Each structure stands twice: as structure tokens, then as C-alpha cells.
Amino acid sequence: MSAVAAYAADRTPSENLSAPYSEGRSAEARGDLGAAIAAYLNASDRHDAASPYALMRVALLARQIGDPLLEQVVQTRLLLQYPDSLAAKAARRMAAESALSLGDGTVAVQMLWSQTVSNDASNERYRREDQALLAEAFLAAGDSGSARAAAERLIVDPRFVAAPDDAALDAVRVLDVIDTPAGSKKPQFSDASEHMRRASIYQSAREFVSARTHYEEVVLGSDVPDTAAEAAFQVGRGYAQAGEYVVALQWFERVTERWPETPAARDALLQKAAAFARVGKMKESIGRYKQFIDRYPNDEKIDRAFLNACDVERDAGQDQDALRWAAKGREALRGKPQEGLAVYAEAKVHIARGEWNEAIQSLEQLLTLPDVSSFPGGASRSEIELLIAYCLEQGARYDEAIRRYLSIPDGRLEYFGWLANRRLEELRQNEAARPALARAAAAAAQRLSSGKTEERAGAARELVRVSDTPELLERSREILLDEGKRVTQALSRELRASAGPKVPTAEFLTRIGAYEEAAAETDAASVSAIVTAAAYQKAGRADRTIAASEPMWRKIDARIPIEGLPVQELEWLFPVAYRDQVVSAASRFGVDARLILSIMRQESRFQPDARSGAAARGVMQFIPSTSRRIARLLEIEGFDDDALYHPPTAITFGARYLAELNELFPSKTEAVVAAYNGGEDNVKRWAARARSNEAERVFAEIVYSQTKEYTVRVMANYRMYQYLYNEDLSRR
């Protein structure tokens, strides 16, 4: 205790307030941990705003170099001298983790109790994580009753029942330990509803083996048909999600044969049809879809049976049979919102076969039907317009194609407008299409000279897409830039007007170069969001910067051409995060650093501790099955999924996976992006149906609406990152 008392003793602060902490950060950045610790200890003796953070840095470095005594000493000093600081909250959790690693649950409970009973909900996620750690601490201390109560509080929280988080997963693990008798390998209790509850949490986290432990108990022990059937179905679903379709088929067959009248049997029949297709048994798959249609003609999922059967026939190379299934679907779905899905399925078959007039006819009809973009296999209006233009182009109807391409809005978030621009660029290389481009440019130039302000702006937007005359292009860009300045002036005024009260502690930390610590103090003070965003931008925290800027940018028309937008404000919306790690990983694995950023921005908004409802973790959002496979490829032993919350690790995994996808889908960026979200096996089937490398056709074949929307957003990000940055992420 003498060492602790010495560290806790008050000392007279030096006159020079800034040097030690800055020296510590610099030494830490260059890897000189010994010098960093010495500098931080010096900074901690100043008793200023940086002192608690200096002690926190020493504790972190002590853990990194394996010095538990130093870690304990500085944590104790931090808790004694600065108990109400932000750093102290983190120190308590670290101390609890250290105590748990040594098997001392009592000390861990003491460290965590005050934080978990607090009513402060300003950071609900971390409060729940502390609560989960508290449950583990009670368990380690031998207090299984308190451990159970702490775990139950996490699981029953209605905000996390439908989408369990990591804390709920940790809680159910604690409960399973409590209910597993000595000498047994699995929990022992007979409550089917409790088995189902725990299994669903494991299943949502893709912990399929643990989920099966509970589901199988229900299958064996429940005398309620609906419950037993649902449990068996979920076992099959877990195997299917893991890609083990042969085993999944056995469970789906079990459901349909043993419990044919249950709701789960209907779902199992559809899943069985899909699983047969995955193992290459196309006739069996079609047969199961026919059974579903015959048995459940009014089921809400009837559209999937018709459309999936169409796709299975396409995968088998039976285009005429696919068209017949699409026609059957149109008839069965006539007058329903999903009718357009069958029409779109028909159009895609014609496009794959190069039957342009037939495809145009189907697509034009699709535009007269209710929007189907929210349904699996559907398409947005912009996508339909793009495909019509594409088919017109392939049919050499260039004037019509150009008009259609120009009708598709372009801007910072307009993926289909970008694709239209790329098609127009390709038309410039087509000798037969040049006269049509010249006619379109001439018509726009006339409106540019004689039209009203709004008409001139519209003409300028068209000219930058079709003209190759330097004078016209320069004049058009000036008009667009003026338009962009007008609409972004409101944004600039809002930025200036939103400045809030000053935070002295944050100002001091900023002066000494402790930008991230300053941002944390600003955030905790609940001042203006934009002030906090500015602080986090200086600290390199892109997640917080983008969170503040996005709501403001939503007020700016997304269709304004990017040439008319101010670059500085765009950088707030499309920041470079983790620059060194991204560039290094991109170089190592031969991928575009800008694509890594584009995916990261969509996956997590650069939030290092992000976790999705599907148990994907970190800035690149890896699910366990993929991350563990990549860990094996990288020869990482003892990999833990929580390592993905460390951005350099997540970025390395992301770059390695993208390199693999680039090999699978060369020159198909849309396919690579779709595979990152929807899985490479699915995209292989979709890309094969396209019978083309062209982005328009590959994209159209994406079946999952979530993956389609994801691909749109990532590709829009990619366009902006290419516009703003070079491959080394330097400014253009």
C-alpha cells in the first residue's frame, strides 16, 4: 500500500502545463512505451485536466506490456483522486476485468456496482455492458442468485428483446453456466419457453451450436406441436445459415412430416425448396414450390414460391420454363402489390437473353404498377428507368436512350445517376451514337442561353453529362457551382449559429494536443452537436463527425451535381478514418482504400464498437462465421470475435476479405460489394443469371432488398471517395 499512497499524494503542479501529456502521446505513437509511461506519469503530477487521462493511458499501457502491479497502482490513484472523471469510469471497468481475470469476483463487483445501478442513460450500451460484466462478477464471487438477477434484467429489457445485443448474449451465457450442474455439459431445466428464449438470443448472435442445445431440448421434451415444430425449424434454419444445407434439409423434412399442420411446416416447406436448389437438386426444388402453391394458395409468401421457382429454372438454364413461372406469378398476383415482381422477373429473363424490345415492354408495364422496391427481388423507379435506357441503347435507339439516361437524377447519393453517366461516357466512344449525343447537347445549349434560372440549371446538369465542348462545360460548371453555393449557404449559417457554450476543460485539452480527450469532455458537457463534431473531427473520430453532419446534409438536395458542392463540407460527410491502417491494409492485399472506406462508412459509420442485430462486429461488421474463416487465412491463433472492435484488426480482416471477393468477381465492383453483404454464394448465382459483367445487369439480379439497398449506398459512397481522394487517400 505504500506505493499506492505515494502515487496518491498531492504534488505541486509545474508551470509548464502542456509538454508532458503531448510527449506521452508522441512517444506512444512511435511505439516507445517506456518513454510514454514516464511522460504520462509526469503529466499526472500536474493535477490539471489532463491528469486523469494521463493515468488512464498508463493503465492501458501497463496492461499492454503485462505489468499488472503498475496497472493496479495507477487505477487506484485515478479512482482516489479523480472519482468523478470520465477516465475513472473506464478505470473501474478495467479494474473489474483485471479482478475477474484473477478470479476475484468480489473486487469486480465492488468496482462495477456504482456504475451499473446509476440511472444515467446517456450511454445505454456501456451501461448494459457493465451490467453484463457485473453478472459475471457475481457468478465468480459465488453469488449465483445476484448473477441470475443481473442477467435477467438485461434479457427482459423490452428494447432488446427483438434485437439482442452483446450484453444479452453475455447474460444468457451466465444463465447457462448457473443452470449447468457439475459434471454436465448442458443446462438442465424443463421450461420450454425458457429454452426458446435463450436459443433465440444465441441464434440472433449466430451462435448456432449453443442455440441448438436449447432448441433440441424443446424438440425432445415439448408436448406442444407448434412449439416443438418451431424449435425444429430453427435448428434447420441455423444449419442453412451456416451453409450446411444437407443437414438443414433433414430438419425441414422432419418438421413437414411430423408436424404438417403447424405454421412452422409452411416455412419449412419453402426453406426445403430453397435448400434443394442450393445442393443442385433443381427438380426436387421446383416440386416443393409446387407443393407450397397447392397447399397454401393464399399465404402471404405465395409470391416467393412463384418467383423462386422462376429463378431456379433460370439457374438450371431453362429460360422458357422460367418465363412460364413468371407468367403464372403475374396471374396469381394480379391486383396485389407484388404483381410487379413477376413482371420484373420476366423482364430480367428477356435482358439476359438479349431480347431488348420484349424487356422494354415488360419494364414499361412495370412503371404503371405499384412500387415494388421494398419487396425482395423488386426494383426502384430509378433502376427501372436505367434498365429501359440500357435496353434502348442495346437496341441502337440512341436518342431515346439518351433522353432516358438524362431523366435519371444525378448527385452525391444517386447511384443510378452515376451509372447513367457512365453509360453516356461509353456512348461517346460509339461512333453510331455520337450524332444523338450532339443533338441532346445542342438542345440543352439552347435552353442554357434562353431559359429561366431553373431551366438554365437543368440544362447545365445535362450538358456536363453529354457535351464535349470546353466552353459549354465551363459555363455549365459555373452555373452548377453557383447553385451549390446558394443551397449550402444555409448549411454554413447553421454551422456558425449552432456554436454553444465553451467547455474550459476541453479547451485546455485541445491546447495541449489531447484532441480525443477534449472531444469526450465536449460531448459529456452536452453542448451543440456541431461543436462536438468539430472536436471529434480534430480528434480523428469520423464516426462522431459524420453523425453530426448527416442531419444537416439531408436538407441539401441529393440531386445537386457533385461539381456544385463545396469540397470542405463534403469531407465532413465523407471523411477519411483510420487513414494509416486503411492505406496499409489496402496496399498489403491489393484493394482500393477508397472502397474500404466506402464499406466502412455504410457498415458502421466508422463506429469502432458497432454491433448489428446479426451479430456483426466492428467498423467492417464481420459476422462470426466469416471472421473466423478470415482469421484462419491470416493464421491468427486463439481469435476472439471481440477483437473486431479494434479498428486495425477489423480493417485488416476487411481488406483480406475484399481481396478474396475481387478474385471471385473480377471487374465486378457491384458484385464484390453485394457479396460483402449478401454472401459470395448468393452473388455467384445472381451474377451467373446476368450473363454479363456490366454493372446494370449484375445489380438487377440481386434478390435481397437489403443487399440491393446496401449496394446502392456503398457504390454511392465509393463514387464520392473517388471524387474527393486519390488511392493513397490524399486530397485530389
Describe the structure.
- The chain has 732 residues and is an all-alpha fold.
- Among the domains are: 189-299, Alpha Horseshoe (Serine Threonine Protein Phosphatase 5, Tetratricopeptide repeat), CATH 1.25.40.10; 579-724, Orthogonal Bundle (Lysozyme), CATH 1.10.530.
- Helix content is 70%, strand content 0%.
- The chain has 39 helices and no strands.
- It has helices at residues 2-8, 19-29, 33-44, 51-65, 68-81, 86-101, 105-116, 124-140, 144-156, 166-178, 192-204, 208-221, 225-241, 245-258, 263-278, 282-295, 302-315, 319-332, 339-352, 356-367, 381-394, 398-406, 415-428, 434-450, 453-466, 470-497, 504-511, 515-524, 529-538, 542-553, 567-573, 579-589, 593-604, 624-633, 647-664, 669-678, 680-690, 695-700, 705-724.
- The protein is flat and about 80 Å long.
Please tell me the overall pLDDT.
87
Poorly predicted ranges: 1-17, 117-122
How many beta-strand segments? Answer: 0
CATH architecture field of the domain at 579-724: Orthogonal Bundle
What coarse outline follows from CA principal-axis ratios? flat
Give the count of helical stretches: 39
CATH topology description of the domain at 579-724: Lysozyme
C-alpha termini separation: 58 Å
Strand proportion: under 5%
Biggest sheet overview: none
Structural class: mainly alpha
The level-1 CATH class of the domain at 579-724: Mainly Alpha
